[in-house]
Each structure stands twice: as structure tokens, then as C-alpha cells.
Amino acid sequence: MGPAISFGDANAGFQAGIVNGSVNTTFHLPPERRETPPLPDIVIPFARDADFVERGTTLDQLQQRCAAPDARAALVGLGGVGKSQLAIEHAYRTRERSPQTWVFWVHASNADRFEQSYRDIADQVKIAGRRDPQANIFKLVHDWLCDCKQQWLLVLDNIDDARFLLSYQANSDGQGQTTNTPVIWKPLRKYLPHCKRGSILVTTRNEEAALKLVERRDIVRVEPMDKAEGLALFKKKLGPQGNNSDVAELAAALEYMPLAIVQAAAYILQRGPRCSVAKYLDEYRKSERKRTSLLDYDEGHLRRDGQAKNSIIVTWQISFEYIQQTRSSAADLLSLMSFFDRQEDDTSQSSAGDDEFGDDVVVLRNFCFISTDAGGTVFEMHALVQLAMRKWLKANSKLEQWKQQFVSNLCAAFPTGEYENWAACQALYAHAKAAIGQKPKDESSIAEWATVLYRAEWFAERIGNITDAKMLAMKAMKARKKVLGQEDEGTLWSIAMVADAYSLGGQWDEAEKLRKQVMETRKKKLGADHPDTLTSMANLASTLWNQGRWDTAEELEVQVMETRKKKLGADHPDTLTSMANLAFTWKAQGRNVEAIALIR
């Protein structure tokens, strides 16, 4: 083997002539120069937001928690609710209060981004040995933080899936690729130091992930803005247009969700002056399809992770997919819930056992997709979450499946409108109205859908809600005519319900036409003395009575009374009802003596 040859300062190596055996070489990088330690700084990838809106006492709570030695806290809330914006503002306020405090930002959505953030920290604070390919960058940063003489704040942003923090990590080349000589390290969670001078703030949509890093008492829940906060944000983002009177309505329609407000403001400004607040609001109200289109807009936010989506629809769908992968039964429950009214009881409960159902509810609560009352039987979802979920179902060809399941569950639960069922009807009434816009395509499901609306109309009529009664009855009647046919008994009952609704509103002529139609069809199909035929005759007589056509009404009522006497007996409740009706007709005609005798 020949002598070692120097190639100058730029390189070093060896040259061999004839080699008869194995050759082992070791390369030594030139020693690193000692670098001057930098002064404490704020190292985050976002500028401070001049449009920041105070969120009640949330930042005060954070400041109190993070002021304690070795503090850890977590902001937990729905995607787009403003967790990262609160963390950014907290970071800058921390730096303002204490200029000698280091502030670092770690993108923590996955292992690769976590590692890159640690490498960025190592570069910023100039940790010796950080360029060594064999170095454990996590340990270097961990040890530096532990030894740091200044206070520091570490923000871990967007830890929705904490599993990568809990698994053992192999040595990588800094680009996310595992090297040929892996060295197994501790779980990444172990490289988040406990240190008296440091505090860690986590942002996450998933409470379960937060609990891997902080105590439950240190979780700060972030809810959508209240009305005043939502309006303030809209006005700041819209500028002069923010004084428009429609802003309050649009903020309410967007449920005071910060990301949706920022997104809508960006959309309006980019398309101005042709697109105004009023124009956006009008388009938003047109249809579910239009709403999802507007909420899919992916612009307008400078203070979000570059790899995150600005579309609030897509933001939530990412979480849906995570739940689908990790607990499919919870995803199924959320799919079903997305069709019910936003406040719902456990009508949506699947046939699975209570334990499984309870576990599914916990998963959905952890992601802030639902909240529950104290008894755990009433759930609430944001309407925008429901909209996003239905869009996701449509994109994944599952919309009809879950729409049919929703209708079937509701049909089985919604009772008829008799007085003894009113409490149950009232509890389910909002869900029946939610079903109006969720008509399925399958014919058998359409029949169930029509039954739900028919029973809801029955209840609406009984409590005197004329507007709802007419609307529900018309939709049920049209659906039954199409699916069951004009002469089906279910269709006839729906036609009779529409007539009842007309009568309730004093539209006697329209009611008369429909009641004649029902009566004649039943006479032909069931016979003149069938109980249902007699009921339709009595209803028609009632309509005629209200029109002041007492002679015609009397003819029908006498016929109904005599037939019921013959078929049911003189003392049957239906017979007695028809006798009472006839008595009131005689009274209206001024035949008081006969009326009193009949009533007696």
C-alpha cells in the first residue's frame, strides 16, 4: 500500500498500488469552528397578525399556565377555530414580556416535519455537532434546551396524530431517509424536555393526542368566536366593506368560525367590486352545493402552516379521513349524524353495543366534531361540519348509503301525531325538517322519507303550525304520488293531510277539491261503507260546513251517521261523533230544537 497523499485543505485521502487484503478507512471531517452563541430570539415562521382579535380570557389562561416552571399546555379545538393564531400571538406576547426568552416553533404534523424543525432550531442556536450525519439531532436539541441558561417557549403546532411521537425512531440522514446503519433511539416524546426554565405549548384538533403530552387540567379548549369577536374579525379583514349591514348575517351563517370568516373575506375582496358581502351571502344561501363551493376556497390566510389547507371544508375532511383509518365505526357514526339536525338525541345510535357507541362518541368529542349535554344523550354538531362531512361522503360515493340510513332510523323513531305522542314528536321534529333537504334516490327510501314528513305534518297540524303543515304535507303527497301511485292508500292519506293543512289556513275551496278526490277514490276502491270512506265523507262535510253550505253538508253527515249506526252500532264513538257533527249543522241552520234533541 502506498503512502497517504494530501490533497490540500479541500480534501484528504489515500492512494493504493496493489492491495492484497482488506482495507479499512476512516474519514475525519475537519473540526467544526467554535461559533459565537446567538442572543435569544423569536424563531417562528409567521409574522404577528395586526388583525388579531382577542378571544376572551384564552391568552390570559395560557400565560398563567406557561408562567409556571416546566409548564405544558395544549390548545384543543376544531380545525379552523384559530388555535395556531392564538399560539402565534402568545409567542409574540411572551417575547414582549421577556426579551431574554427564546421562542421556537415546531411543525409537528408528522415525524419528518418534526425532525426538520429540530434541525432548524439546531442551526438557529448553532449547536455544535449538528452537521454530523450520525448525530442524534433530537438529543442535541433536547440537551441544549436542558442546559439553556435563558427561558424558552417551544410551540408544537398541529399534533393531530401523536403516534409518531410514541414510536421508536431510527437514525436518518436528515432528509427523512433511514441510513444503512440505523441506531434505535428513544420515542420522540422523550426529546421534549422537562426543564424549569422551559414551557411547551401544543396545538391540536385531537384531545387524545394532547393527553399524550399534557395533563387534562392543562388543556384549554378553543371554541368558535362569539358574535362580537366574529364581527370584529370580519371588519378587520374586509376593511371599508366591513361596515356593511350584511356582515353580521354572514358571520352568523359561518357560525363565527375564524378560518371560514377569513376565507370568505378573501373571496369577497379578490372578486370585488363585483362580489360584495350581500352577493356572497345571497350565493351562500342558494343551495348546499353552492355553500360547499364557497367554503372550498383555498386562499386568504398568511398565518397558517404552508402545508395546511385554507379551505375549511378540506381542513375538516383531513380529520374525517384520520378517523376513518383509525376507528371506522366512529367515522360511520359521524356520517350518520351529519344528516340529523345539528342538535340531536341518540336517534342516530347504531345497533352496536352501548360500549362501542360510547367509545365512538369519545373519539368524535376528542376531535371536537360533536359536543354532548351533561347526560350524554343529546349531541350537537356545527352545521358547517355537517356540510363538510356530506361533501366528503359524496366524494367517496357514500352519500346515498348514509342518507338512506338516516331516513330509515328517523322513520322508525318518529311516531304518529296523536296527543299522547306529542313529546316524542317534539323531540324529533327538527330532525324531520332537516330530512326535507335529504331526499334519497332509492324508491323504498323515498317512501320512508315521505312517511317521516307525513307524521311530522300530522304533528305540525295538531299544534297549529300552518306554514310547516302545508309544506310538509305537499312534499309527502308529491313523493307518495310518484312512488306509490295516485290511488294508493298512503297517497290518499297524504292528500287528506294537504286538505287538512288548507283547511287550517282557511283555504276551503282547495281543501274541498282534495277531499272530494279522496272520497271518490275510496268509494271506488274500498266501498261506500268502508270506515275510511266514511271518514273522508265526514271531512268533506266539515269543509262544506265551514263554507256555509250547510244543506250539502247535512246530506253527507246524515249518510255518514246512518251508515255508522248500521255498521258500528248506535253507541260507537264514531257514530256519536257523526251525530254531534249533524247536530251542529242543524244548529247552524237555526234548527235548534232538533239539534238539542240529537245532542241529548
Q: What does this molecule look like?
A:
With 600 residues, the protein is α/β, with parallel strands linked by helices. The protein has four domains: 42-222, P-loop containing nucleotide triphosphate hydrolases (Rossmann fold); 227-295; 407-505; 510-600, Serine Threonine Protein Phosphatase 5, Tetratricopeptide repeat (Alpha Horseshoe). The protein is built from 25 helices and 13 strands. A hairpin with a 6-residue loop joins strand 12 (370-372) and strand 13 (379-381). Helix 3 (111-125) crosses helix 4 (137-147) and helix 22 packs antiparallel against helix 23. The longest helix has 20 residues, at 443-462. The model is unreliable at 1-7, 172-176 and 178-182 (pLDDT under 50). This is NB-ARC domain-containing protein. Residues 73-240 form the NB-ARC domain. InterPro entries: NB-ARC, NLR-like, P-loop_NTPase, TPR-like_helical_dom_sf. GO terms for molecular function: ADP binding.
Task: Provide the fold topology.
Blueprint: E1 4-6, E2 12-14, E3 42-43, H1 58-66, E4 71-77, H2 83-97, E5 102-107, H3 111-125, H4 137-147, E6 152-157, H5 163-166, E7 168-170, E8 184-187, E9 198-204, H6 207-210, E10 219-222, H7 227-238, H8 247-253, H9 258-270, H10 277-286, H11 288-295, H12 312-326, H13 328-337, E11 343-344, H14 354-366, E12 370-372, E13 379-381, H15 383-395, H16 399-413, H17 422-435, H18 443-462, H19 466-484, H20 489-504, H21 508-526, H22 531-546, H23 550-568, H24 573-588, H25 592-599
Parallel strand pairs: 3-5, 4-9, 4-10, 5-6, 6-9
Antiparallel strand pairs: 1-2, 7-8, 11-13, 12-13
Helix pairs in contact: 1-2, 3-4, 7-8, 7-9, 8-10, 10-11, 12-13, 12-15, 13-14, 13-16, 16-17, 16-18, 17-18, 18-19, 18-20, 19-20, 20-21, 21-22, 22-23, 23-24, 24-25
